[in-house]
């Protein structure tokens, strides 16, 4: 089967994220996080059956995400869960060093891994005032690994210096429609380029110098991964952010 002709950018991103998750890890995603939600379910079905899935409603290891049409924070994730673990306990767990991975977002990112989710422009006279850090301000510094995903990759998103530092800390990977960045020695490095993109496209759409030690490409989704995605996400929630 030629998976290259079937996989979309959303599929490539989901599979790349799922492969980052290890068996036995405790992993959290928040609201409006359909991509991480699907990636966590994919990992549990394939290589990480003992992954612990935490979320906003407090549902531990929901058996299905097929009814999560509104967001990734609906009551359905609790109704089909194995146990209840409320949000305040997630923050406590992270601050005690027990949260392995947190999926978080933002609007601006710079080469040093700073995240802006507060304002565009001057803080006191902003062009746009954003929702703010919310859980990111706590979880990015305290989770062992913070994975950020963003369905837009352009020079307004990846900038030389963020307009405001909402949070910084344990940013481990950033996954975009073009590539994967990894944090190494205090700076973002290009880890892999998606086969649907190119080094030139990544450089043209990144506002800071793109550094890399080698040119690598993100593996395409396998036939098995695509098959499981159709089973666990038949309504294609993973593409809803595009």
TrEMBL record:
The lineage's top-level taxon is Bacteria
Q: Which SUPFAM superfamilies match?
A: NagB/RpiA/CoA transferase-like
Q: Which Pfam families match?
A: CoA_trans
InterPro entries registered for this protein in UniProt: CoA_trans_fam_I, NagB/RpiA_transferase-like
- Per its UniProt record, what SMART domains does this chain match? CoA_trans
User: What is the official name of this protein in its record?
Assistant: CoA-transferase
Q: Which family does it belong to?
A: Belongs to the 3-oxoacid CoA-transferase subunit B family.
């Amino acid at each position: 089967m030629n998976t290259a002709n079937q996989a979309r950018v959303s599929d490539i991103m989901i599979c790349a994220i799922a492969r980052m998750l290890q068996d036995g890890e405790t992993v959290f995603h928040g609201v409006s996080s359909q991509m991480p939600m699907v990636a966590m379910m994919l990992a549990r079905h394939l290589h990480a059956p003992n992954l612990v899935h935490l979320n906003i409603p407090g549902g531990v290891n929901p058996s299905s995400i097929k009814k999560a049409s509104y967001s990734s924070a609906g009551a359905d994730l609790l109704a089909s869960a194995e146990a209840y673990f409320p949000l305040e306990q997630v923050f406590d767990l992270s601050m005690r060093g027990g949260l392995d991975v947190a999926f978080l977002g933002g609007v601006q990112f710079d080469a040093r891994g700073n995240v802006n989710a507060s304002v565009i422009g001057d803080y006191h006279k902003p062009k746009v005032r954003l929702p703010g850090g919310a859980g990111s301000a706590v979880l990015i510094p305290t989770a062992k690994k913070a994975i950020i995903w963003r369905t837009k990759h352009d020079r307004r998103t990846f900038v030389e210096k963020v307009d405001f530092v909402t949070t910084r800390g344990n940013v481990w990977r950033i996954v975009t429609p073009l590539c994967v960045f990894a944090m190494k020695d205090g700076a973002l490095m290009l880890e892999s380029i998606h086969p649907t993109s190119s080094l030139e496209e990544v450089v043209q759409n990144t506002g800071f110098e793109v550094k890399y030690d080698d040119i690598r490409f993100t593996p395409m989704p396998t036939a098995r991964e695509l098959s499981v995605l159709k089973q666990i996400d038949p309504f294609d929630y993973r593409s809803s952010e595009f």
